[in-house]
Amino acid sequence: MAKQRDKIRMSDAEITAFLDDCKSLHVATLDKDGAPHLTTLWFAVQDGKILFETYAVSQKVMNLRRDPRLAVLCEQGTTYDQLRGVSIKGMAQIVESGPECNTLMKAIVMRNNPGLPANVLAQHVTEMTRKRIVVVVHPEKVISWDHRKLAQA
């Protein structure tokens, strides 16, 4: 007999589709005193890794420079039978400048601002990389749930 946890787990394809459908990402880092610091921002997924951009001097970046561990969460649903989510624990890689930063920043901007003309996109990315960095989340543990599967069981 399968445990309920096994029944609601998403497949890799379902996780990919779910993340494609989500707009916001909750990001938890650790403050100097060990307390969680939680924020929400837009993101992109590239090669199975979560990408997000933020100001280089933000609290979350200061936290990640000190301790690269983080957790991120996307969730949907307003009733128990509709709850879905993906939680990822991992390590952060900070990409501060150069061609890699531009490429990753472009992926984030394109996902969250579809239809931007190429010249506007390039100018926007150039402006953003002056004060912002990209964080790449390298997943170590992925947990998923889709309570809609309970009705199917």
Task: Explain how this protein is built.
The chain has six helices and seven strands. The model has no long low-confidence stretch (mean pLDDT 94). It has helices at 4-8, 12-21, 59-66, 98-112, 118-131, 148-152, and strands at residues 24-30, 36-42, 44-46, 49-55, 69-76, 84-95, 132-146. It starts with a helix and ends with a helix. The chain is globular.
Question: Can you give me a brief rundown of this structure?
Answer:
With 153 residues, the chain is of the alpha+beta class. The protein has helices at residues 4-8, 12-21, 59-66, 98-112, 118-131, 148-152, and strands spanning 24-30, 36-42, 44-46, 49-55, 69-76, 84-95, 132-146. It has a single domain (4-152), classed as Electron Transport, Fmn-binding Protein, Chain A (Pnp Oxidase, Chain A), CATH 2.30.110.
